[in-house]
Design a protein that fits this description.
The protein is an alpha/beta fold. The chain has 2 domains: 7-196 and 370-375, Glycogen Phosphorylase B (Rossmann fold, 3-Layer(aba) Sandwich), CATH 3.40.50.2000; 213-366, Glycogen Phosphorylase B (Rossmann fold, 3-Layer(aba) Sandwich). 34% of the residues lie in helices and 15% in strands. It has 12 helices and 13 strands. It has helices at 21-26, 50-64, 93-111, 156-169, 178-181, 235-244, 280-284, 306-313, 324-327, 339-351, 355-366, 370-398, and strands at residues 7-12, 34-39, 79-82, 119-123, 139-144, 172-175, 190-192, 222-226, 249-253, 269-273, 289-292, 318-320, 333-335. The strands form 2 sheets. The protein has a 7-stranded parallel β-sheet with strand order 3-2-1-4-5-6-7, with helices on both faces. A 6-stranded parallel β-sheet has the order 10-9-8-11-12-13, sandwiched between helices. The model has no long low-confidence stretch (mean pLDDT 89).
């Protein structure tokens, strides 16, 4: 189906960073639409941690390096990546005003002087309400993927205030979990869009594939996890499971925002760090059981973990904390919260890991493709654009104006 083209100004995470839902969703707008991808800074002010120092250094290098020099490969057709200089202290009003000025200057230069197709402003960040309407857009969208006010290290009241401002101003709110659809204001704007998966990428390795080096000399079964290691992970719980089951090997793959001192040190609990996204299925596909061991709190109750559908696309049996978005798949996922429950659930998953189960899990994932999710988003955008145009036409006619001017 041929789609009408848009020009999207997208304020979100780095295009070349960790894979995330906004990139998965919007890359299906290419090449028929134009994406101006604006890489912004996050919510937290930097601290003297190794992760923040590396992140800050990378940002500075991006700002000073010639365009494209630090990119691992060519960009897709019709995608422009903009890296405006930003100061990571938005809690100060003068800094926020300066950041707005720097952002507008760089993005307007990328857009050019002529608008030929409908322009959409879309953001995943709650603190950019002061930019809604600044790009001469025809429609504004807030893609709400987390309860950012509950993130560790942020000012809850300030972030909540910024988000309320944004919610009042945008035309459409797209939420990745049902919890995030529950708004006190503007509920009529909200649409629920759970995460999808790229099944063409997450393909299980063949049984004859060589075991990746990460598993060499490690005994099975492999109980695995991939993703960002941060405070929402219940690592003390997993460490206790690992102590009680020393015959199981636990492998947690991904970058860490935790101090090294907070990573448990056990011979059967390994933290090998991140691996390239391209290689992830060929490594994680060797897991015997995949984990989503999140702490249960206000932040995680709003989370829709990307890795759930990615695990299922690999055919892996999954054991997870009872997150609301995961509980919806309780027929395919085993739920656990206490140490004893995790042990029993992993034992049951290992015992029931049949070929039929792997095929059924893969089939479920295939029904949740990112391409289908992107199509829904485009349908919603089209509907709201049409409604906005009708309202404009009626207002113009009722005021005696001419639509032919």
């Amino acid at each position: 189906m041929m789609r009408a083209p848009y020009e999207l100004v997208v304020l979100t995470d780095d295009w070349d960073g960790l894979p995330f839902s906004c990139k998965h969703l919007l890359k299906h707008f290419l090449p028929h639409s134009r994406l101006i991808w604006v890489e912004t800074i996050g919510l937290r002010s930097p601290r003297l941690s190794s992760y923040d120092v590396r992140r800050a250094a990378s940002k500075v290098l991006d700002w000073v390096a010639p365009a494209g020099k630090r990119r691992p490969g060519p960009l897709p057709v019709n995608l422009t990546v903009v890296k405006p200089i930003q100061i990571p202290y938005n809690q100060w009003s003068p800094v926020r005003r300066l950041n707005r000025h720097l952002m507008l200057r760089r993005v307007r230069a990328a857009l050019g002087n002529v608008k030929r197709i409908p322009r959409i402003f879309l953001t995943t960040w709650p603190f950019v309400g002061n930019l809604v309407g600044a790009f001469d857009e025809d429609l504004s969208v807030y893609y709400r993927v987390d309860d950012f006010s509950e993130f560790p290290g942020v000012d809850k009241a300030r972030v909540s205030g910024w988000e309320r401002e944004l919610i009042l101003q945008v035309d459409l709110i797209v939420a990745s979990s049902e919890r995030l659809t529950r708004l006190e204001t503007s509920p009529e704007k909200v649409r629920y869009l759970p995460h999808g998966v790229d099944c063409s990428h997450f393909v299980r390795p063949s049984p004859s594939a060589a075991l990746p080096p990460i598993f060499q000399d490690l005994p099975r079964p492999y109980i695995g996890f991939f993703g960002l290691l941060d405070k929402w992970l219940d690592l003390p719980r997993i460490a206790e499971v690992a102590r009680r089951r020393p015959d199981w090997t636990f492998v947690f793959i991904g970058p860490s925002q935790l101090p090294r001192s907070e990573l448990p040190t056990l011979p059967n609990l390994l933290f090998p760090g991140p691996i390239p996204y391209a290689e992830l299925p060929q490594v994680a596909g060797h897991f015997d059981v995949a984990l989503i061991p999140f702490k249960m709190n206000a932040l995680t109750s709003a989370v829709n973990p990307l890795k759930l559908m990615e695990y299922l696309a690999l055919g892996l049996p999954v054991v997870s904390s009872p997150l609301p978005e995961v509980v919806k798949f309780k027929e395919q996922v085993r739920l656990a919260e206490t140490t004893d429950e995790f042990i029993r659930a992993i034992e049951a998953a290992l015992a029931a890991n049949t070929e039929r189960g792997r095929v059924e899990r893969r089939a479920l994932a295939e029904s949740m493709s990112w391409e289908s999710k992107s199509g829904k988003l485009q349908d919603w955008i089209d509907t709201v654009l049409e409604r906005t145009l009708r309202v404009f036409m009626l207002a113009s006619l009722s005021s005696g104006g001419s639509l032919l001017c």
